Amino acid sequence: MIQYRRILELYFRGTSQRTICSSLGHSRDTVSEVIQRSRQSGIAQLTNEMNNQWLLEFLFPEKQAIAKGYFPVDWEEVHKELQKKNMTLKLLHREYEQRARDNKKIPYAYRTFCRHYGKYAKKHKATMPIKRKPGEIMEVDWAGDTLSLQDRSTGEKLTVYLFVATLPYSQLFYAEGFFNMKSENWLIAHIHAFEYFNGVAETLVPDNLKTGVNKPIKGEPVLNEAYRELSGHYGTTIVPTRVKAPKDKPSVESNVGYISRQIIAALRYYQCFSLIDLNKKILEEVNKLNDEPFQKREGSRRSVFNEEEKAKLIPLRYPRYQLTEWKTAKVQTNYHIQVNRMYYSVPYEYIQSQVDVKITKDLIEVYFKEMRIASHKILLGDIGQYSTNPNHMPDSHRKYLEHTPEQVIGCAKRIGENTEKFVEYILDNNVEKKALMILASFKNLTNSYSDKLIEEGCKTLMAISHAPALSVLKTILKRMKDTQNSRENGTLNEAKTDNDYGFVRGAKYFGGIKNEKRRNITQIN
């Protein structure tokens, strides 16, 4: 006989399947199937009533039918089908009966079919009492019922939604009203609850609501980034309930009903014109209920919390968590992203990439695959402003941005006095845009000529010309460099001339020899 309970007991203690097989004498397939069925059925802990027969009927209902020669029933499928609109057990039995006859098997009678389904449903809907540890869990939810208040100026009736947080061990709870259930109020409510309890539980258990969970994937839900940051700041862990499984957080569900009866119903005629005043009244009622003695045991929620649970909570972290908002944006071709109709730069390497944007009260941070790539102060005022970090630009864009008259004059000063005079002349005698275009070409000369040569060239240019031009300077620099190279190579030919004549071709070419002979004859005579 298969020892279902013993298999699960050893498994829940962390014993390997191989060890279970050898100690109980069951095959690996049998042990694996029992464990797999228990996972699918949601059994996480054994109770006293879960003996071998109970587990056999619960985990393997089809074996009962096969053992007696009846056509087996998939009770899980029956249970799912019965939840559909206009579906009845009578119709499901008729379909089951037809399948049994098609397979030449004996079907259950309708009365027996209903009795077996009743047993399955009773076990399927059974709840397991779980003992909570102090400081282990805080369950949170929005109450289904709402309160209301009147707008003082318009008289309009405003709906107020109630947030509820409960510590299951002591049953101490906190409640607060908000005008909506958006992410910002969801986070604020958590912070106020932590401060009310003066500590944080190890685990937060919310529903799969959109303000907390982006994608309720079974086993690995994707949390809202701001909610995840909140848990990281206070050192707690978020474990959302299963989808459509309110019994995963029974304490807060119970307190939601309790609050609906004791607070919402009690305040239904309370006239209030301010949410602050309403929350003060709600807090008074919360404190009164938390101090109220238990009916079936000694003490109150507050006394149990103070004596047994308060010391087990994680201490509050200061300063308080700063609220954040997360958005996604695409980097434009001008290496900027648009956030709230303002523009912020990111490194140009991320053009056309999708990035995550974290928005706080004073700061915007940009992340690419969880790595921060840029941060800016929040821009205020007129829409369409730009916040640009020069380090985010390509080199060519940054050089263009830095190319100003002041910058060019500063570079010229470092080269020499005559270079500065030439630059100032260009700026004074041309429109600024044209002057900057000329000086951009002038700056490129530093790539081909030394600072000393440029200074000498500017000195020569300013001495021989009343209207210095860049083209003339380029010619002077070219000749000076060629001369310098020839001198260094020893290929320079220096022409020698007679000191009495100013022409290289000499006096003979211009008839100077005849005049020289006549002068000599005259002197002899």
Write the layout of secondary structure elements.
Elements lengths: L3 H9 L4 H8 L3 H14 L10 H8 L1 H7 L7 H8 L6 H14 L7 H15 L12 E14 L6 E10 L6 E6 L4 H15 L5 E3 L7 E3 L6 E2 L1 H10 L2 E2 L11 H15 L10 H17 L9 H9 L15 E6 L5 E4 L2 E4 L8 E6 L3 E6 L2 E7 L8 E2 L7 H8 L2 H11 L1 H12 L3 H13 L6 H14 L5 H20 L22 H13 L1
Parallel strand pairs: 1-4, 4-7, 10-14
Antiparallel strand pairs: 1-2, 2-3, 5-6, 8-11, 9-10, 11-12, 12-13
Helix pairs in contact: 1-3, 4-5, 15-16, 16-17, 16-18, 18-19
Report the sheet-strand fraction.
5-15%
Radius of gyration: 45 Å
DSSP helix count? 20
Share of helix, binned: 40-55%
Question: How far apart lie the N and C ends?
Answer: 160 Å
Number of strands: 14
Walk across the major sheet and give the strand order: 3-2-1-4-7
Low-confidence stretches: none
Mean pLDDT, rounded to whole units?
A: 80
Task: Write up this protein.
The structure is a single chain. This protein is an alpha+beta fold. Helices cover 46% and strands 14% of the residues. The chain has 20 helices and 14 strands.
List keywords for this structure.
5-stranded mixed sheet, alpha+beta, 20 helices, 4-stranded antiparallel sheet, 525 residues
Summarize the structure.
The chain has 525 residues and is α+β, with helices and mostly antiparallel strands. It has helices at 4-12, 17-24, 28-41, 52-59, 61-67, 75-82, 89-102, 110-124, 183-197, 225-234, 250-264, 275-291, 301-309, 395-402, 405-415, 417-428, 432-444, 451-464, 470-489, 512-524, and strands at 137-150, 157-166, 173-178, 203-205, 213-215, 222-223, 237-238, 325-330, 336-339, 342-345, 354-359, 363-368, 371-377, 386-387. The strands form four sheets. It has a five-stranded mixed beta sheet, with helices on both faces. The protein has a four-stranded antiparallel beta sheet with strand order 8-11-12-13, with no helix packed on it.
